[in-house]
Design a protein that fits this description.
Strand content: under 5%
Order of helices and strands: HHHHHHHHHHEEHHHHHHHHHHH
GO biological process, one term: dGTP catabolic process
Protein name: Deoxyguanosinetriphosphate triphosphohydrolase
CATH class of one domain: Mainly Alpha
GO molecular function: dGTPase activity
Structural class: mainly alpha
Keywords: Hydrolase
InterPro entries: dGTP_triP_hydro_central_sf (IPR023293), dGTP_triphosphohydrolase_C (IPR027432), dGTPase (IPR006261), dGTPase-like (IPR050135), HD/PDEase_dom (IPR003607), HD_domain (IPR006674), PHydrolase_assoc_dom (IPR026875)
C-alpha cells in the first residue's frame, strides 16, 4: 500500500476532485457527519450506564466526540512525521488532512450501534436465531445473508448507514470510509485468521460488499481472499482513539458513580503516568472529580504519545499488512490498560443498572423486530395482510415502507427492518415497544 493512494478523496458516484487546501474533502466529511441524523441520534443511545439523575456520564454522542478529538490528535501527530518522511506527499496533503480523516472516521465509529449498548447487538442476533417469528426466514436467504442476520455487527451497520442514500447522501471519501473500517472482511469467513486483529469481527454486510470492494480497490488495500482485505493503516489510529477513550473515561464514569473507589482510580491513572504523577500537586485540587478529570486528561496524553510512536515505528509493516494488532496491545502501558479493563468488567460493566439496561434490550429489540419482520415477510410473499401487520407497516417511516415492497427480496426487506430498529434511540425504542404491546397509549 502507498500513502498517496490511501489518502484518496474519491466519493462514490463522483469523479475525483483536485485537493482543496482551504477546506479539504476530508474536512467536509467531518462536517457532513456532524450535521447528519444518524449522528445526532447518538445523544440518546447508551454508552455503558443509563443516565443518572444527579450526575453526568457519557452517552454514545459524547463518547464519539471525545474519540474524534483523540483521533484528530493521533492523525496530526502521525501526519507530521509521515509528511517529513515522504516529501512528495507534502505537495498535496497537510497534517490537517490526516487529522481530519482520523477525526471523521472516529466520529462515526459507533454510528451503527443499536439502542441498549452491546446487548442490542446480541438481541438482534438472537432474534433471528431463536425467535419463533424468524423460523421461516432461514430457508429463503443464502448462507452469507443468514450470517449477516444472525451475527449482527455494529461496525457493518455503521458502514451501511454511512452509505445509505437516504441519510442525506453523506457520500464520504473513500479514505475516510476505509479508515472507519476496522474489520475489512465479510461476515461468513470460516477460516478466519484469529491472530489478525482485522479479522476479529466483520465490517460489511453482503448488501454492501460490492461497494466495499470498490473502496478497497480504490485506496489500494491488500486483498487476502474473497471479500477479505488488509486494514487501512489509519484504521489502527481510529481503533486506538476508541480504546484510549472508552477505557480511561469508563473508569472516570465508574468513579463518579461510586462503582470504583477514588483510591483505586487514582492508582490506575498513576500507573499510566508513572514519573509524571505528582501526588502533592494533585492534592492541591479541591474536588475529587476535578482530580480524576485531570489525571484522565494527562493519561490520554501519555497514551497518544505511546500509540503514535508505535504507529510510526511500524509504518513499513502497516503498509505491507504484516502488522495487524491493536496499538494499545503493544505499548508500554498495555499491562495497566489490562488492569483497567479487568476492573471495569468486574465493577462497572456488571453493575446492576447496566444489567437492567441489557435485560430491557433483550425484550424491546426482539419485540419490535417480530412485529416489523413478520409484516415485511407477508409483503414479500404477497399474501393478504392481517390487520395487525397492516398496523405494523403504518408505523414504519415512508422510506422503509418503500424498500419493503413486493419487488424486494426477503434479505433486503429484513435488513430494512433492522435498519429501522437498530437506528432507534433508547427512548424511542422503549416508547414504541410499549405502544405496540399495549402497555401505554399515545398522548395527544
Amino acid at each position: 500500500m502507498n500513502w498517496e493512494q490511501l489518502l484518496s478523496n474519491q466519493r462514490a458516484g463522483e469523479s475525483p476532485r483536485q485537493h482543496d487546501i482551504s477546506r479539504s474533502a476530508f474536512e467536509q466529511d467531518y462536517d457532513r457527519i456532524i450535521f447528519s441524523h444518524p449522528f445526532r441520534r447518538l445523544q440518546d443511545k447508551t454508552q455503558v450506564h443509563p443516565l443518572p439523575e444527579y450526575d453526568f456520564v457519557h452517552t454514545r454522542l459524547t463518547h464519539s466526540l471525545e474519540v474524534s478529538s483523540v483521533g484528530r490528535s493521533l492523525g496530526k501527530r502521525a501526519g507530521q512525521v509521515l509528511l517529513q518522511r515522504h516529501k512528495e506527499l507534502s505537495e498535496k496533503f497537510s497534517v490537517h488532512d490526516l487529522g481530519a480523516i482520523v477525526a471523521a472516521a472516529s466520529l462515526t465509529h459507533d454510528i451503527g450501534n443499536p439502542p441498549f449498548g452491546h446487548s442490542g447487538e446480541d438481541a438482534i442476533s438472537e432474534f433471528f436465531l431463536n425467535h419463533p417469528a424468524a423460523r421461516l426466514f432461514q430457508d429463503q436467504v443464502d448462507e452469507w445473508q443468514w450470517q449477516d442476520l444472525t451475527n449482527f455487527e455494529g461496525n457493518a451497520q455503521g458502514f451501511r448507514i454511512l452509505n445509505k442514500e437516504r441519510y442525506q447522501g453523506l457520500k464520504l471519501t473513500y479514505a475516510t470510509l476505509a479508515a472507519f473500517s476496522k474489520y475489512p472482511r465479510k461476515s461468513l469467513l470460516p477460516g478466519r485468521d484469529k491472530t489478525r486483529r482485522s479479522q476479529k469481527k466483520y465490517g460489511f454486510f453482503q448488501a454492501e460488499s460490492a461497494l466495499f470492494e470498490a473502496i478497497a480497490d480504490n485506496v489500494g488495500l491488500i486483498r487476502y481472499a474473497d471479500h477479505v482485505w488488509s486494514r487501512h493503516p489509519l484504521a489502527f489510529l481510529v481503533e486506538a482513539a476508541d480504546d484510549i477513550c472508552y477505557q480511561l473515561i469508563d473508569l472516570e464514569d465508574g468513579c463518579r458513580l461510586n462503582l470504583v473507589s477514588y483510591d483505586d482510580t487514582v492508582e490506575l491513572y498513576a500507573g499510566i503516568l508513572r514519573d509524571k504523577f505528582d501526588q502533592a500537586k494533585l492534592e492541591r485540587i479541591e474536588s475529587n472529580d476535578e482530580r480524576i478529570g485531570t489525571l484522565r486528561a494527562l493519561s490520554i496524553g501519555v497514551l497518544i504519545d505511546e500509540c503514535c510512536s508505535l504507529f510510526l515505528d511500524e509504518e513499513k509493516n502497516l503498509l505491507n499488512g504484516t502488522f495487524d494488532t491493536a496499538l494499545t496491545d503493544q505499548i508500554k502501558t498495555t499491562e495497566v490498560l489490562k488492569d483497567i479493563e479487568s476492573l471495569s468488567i468486574e465493577k462497572i460493566y456488571r453493575a446492576r443498572s447496566v444489567m437492567e439496561t441489557e435485560a430491557a434490550g433483550f425484550e424491546v429489540v426482539p419485540g419490535l423486530l417480530a412485529s416489523f419482520t413478520t409484516a415485511a415477510f407477508e409483503v414479500i410473499k404477497n399474501t393478504t395482510l392481517t390487520k395487525k401487520d397492516q398496523s405494523a407497516l403504518r408505523l414504519l417511516p415512508v422510506e422503509i415502507k418503500n424498500e419493503i415492497s413486493q419487488h424486494t427480496d426477503l434479505y433486503s426487506a429484513l435488513m430494512s427492518c433492522v435498519d429501522f430498529v437498530s437506528g432507534m434511540t433508547d427512548s424511542h425504542a422503549i416508547s414504541l415497544y410499549r405502544k405496540i404491546k399495549g402497555i401505554s397509549l399515545p398522548r395527544t
